[in-house]
Write the structure tokens for this entry.
Amino acid sequence: MNKFLFLLSILIFLTFISYAQKPKLTVNNDAYLDTAIQKNIDKNKIANIIDGYRIQLFSGSERNNANALKTKFLKLYPETPAYLIYQQPYFKLRVGDYRTKIEAQNIFYKLQDDFGQVIIIPDKINLPKIN
């Protein structure tokens, strides 16, 4: 009877040991996906450009008017960046780097009073600087 209990205890012990082992998990992923993700990460590190909004103050074919408006804007709002863009045949003056439309609306109404007809435009913006 002692031999039977001994063999039974060894059998139970071996059963617990086999269940206690952790299963091994192998993940097979597509190399193309890893490459695409890494390219996107690298591009964002270099470019520092994201989707956002800017406020357009001017769109027209007169470059002198666009430069004069840019100078006027920078005197009133020196902390806000201004961008003069040429998209043939128009010069466009866009200001600010706003991540959301709500951020752009905060200054939009002030600019309407100062510059008349202005619009909020979806655009690629520079990443905000961290203080």
User: Anything to note?
Assistant: Helices lie at 2-20, 31-47, 63-76, 101-115. The first strand starts at residue 49 and ends at 60. The CA atoms of residues 57 and 118 lie 5 Å apart.
